[in-house]
Amino acid sequence: MNAQVQQIYRFPVKGLSPEPLNSAALTPGAGLPEDRRFTLAYGLTTGAKRGFFQLTSEEKLAQLSLTYDDAEPRLTIQRQGRQVVSADPSDQTGRILLNQFFAGFLAGSPRGTPSFQESTAEDRSEALPESISIINLASVRDFERVARASVDPIRFRGNILIDGLRPWEEFSWLGKELALGAARLKITERTARCAATNVNPDTAQRDMNIPLTLRKGFGHMDMGVYAEVAVAGTVKVGDSVTLASETPARS
């Protein structure tokens, strides 16, 4: 296997755009740092089941891009290249500003008024996953061949994008460990795809049916795999990717 890490992404706010990273320090028992750190929740005051605004039901979220400085901290939201709000998401005043913006932006949603929140321990399994999403770019290209259309890999919202593999080779990794830079990740499951992938990240329009195309073209609805950090370490863009069994033994 002659593969490399091509891109690393974190999604500071669940359902919003990603941020590219040059490197990420990985720790067992945790996902990518700051990934899905914040959410836009609904159903908090109506007695309805709590949920999160995301592209599956609110495709207009793709109109927004963001930057997140976790050191300051500061979250800045842009729409069509223009800054619309910038605030400290850990501060009460900052959250008020963010809530005001999202209340206006998502006005009229049947899910009610969004509440910008930091993920809690209760949210962790859904909003702040311990798993890391890995996408094989060769599989995306093979999907493009079947779909007869260009597909932005961002649709699949992966944390680590890898190139240099055979299409769908990642499905053979279940239960195995990958070495990425200094870290090791255990592959736990394939990633089933939902309607959120139908939204074009550039236009915020639903212009494809990706789960249906996967099922018709390949007999499944999966793209990518989930992994858990087995050995801590930093992963960088350009790092080689090998199965742990292929990694030279340490002396």
Explain this structure to me?
With 251 residues, this protein is of the alpha+beta class. It has two domains: 3-32 and 129-246, Beta Barrel (M1 Pyruvate Kinase, Domain 3); 38-124, no CATH class. 15% of the residues lie in helices and 34% in strands. The chain is built from four helices and 16 strands. The protein has helices spanning 92-105, 124-127, 137-147, 210-218, and strands at 3-10, 19-21, 23-26, 38-42, 51-52, 64-69, 74-79, 82-87, 115-118, 132-136, 160-163, 177-180, 183-192, 222-231, 233-236, 240-243. It has a seven-stranded mixed beta barrel with strand order 1-11-10-14-13-12-16. A three-stranded antiparallel beta sheet has the order 5-4-9. Strands 6-7-8 form a three-stranded antiparallel beta sheet, covered by helices on one side. Strand 1 and strand 2 (19-21) form a beta hairpin. It is globular and about 50 Å long. It starts with a strand and ends in an 8-residue tail after the last strand. Residues 247-251 have low confidence and may be disordered.
Short description:
The chain is of the alpha+beta class. It has helices spanning 92-105, 124-127, 137-147, 210-218; strands at residues 3-10, 19-21, 23-26, 38-42, 51-52, 64-69, 74-79, 82-87, 115-118, 132-136, 160-163, 177-180, 183-192, 222-231, 233-236, 240-243. It is built from 4 helices and 16 strands.
Give a topology summary:
Layout: E1 3-10, E2 19-21, E3 23-26, E4 38-42, E5 51-52, E6 64-69, E7 74-79, E8 82-87, H1 92-105, E9 115-118, H2 124-127, E10 132-136, H3 137-147, E11 160-163, E12 177-180, E13 183-192, H4 210-218, E14 222-231, E15 233-236, E16 240-243
Parallel strand pairs: 10-11
Antiparallel strand pairs: 1-2, 1-11, 1-16, 3-15, 4-5, 4-9, 6-7, 7-8, 10-14, 12-13, 12-16, 13-14
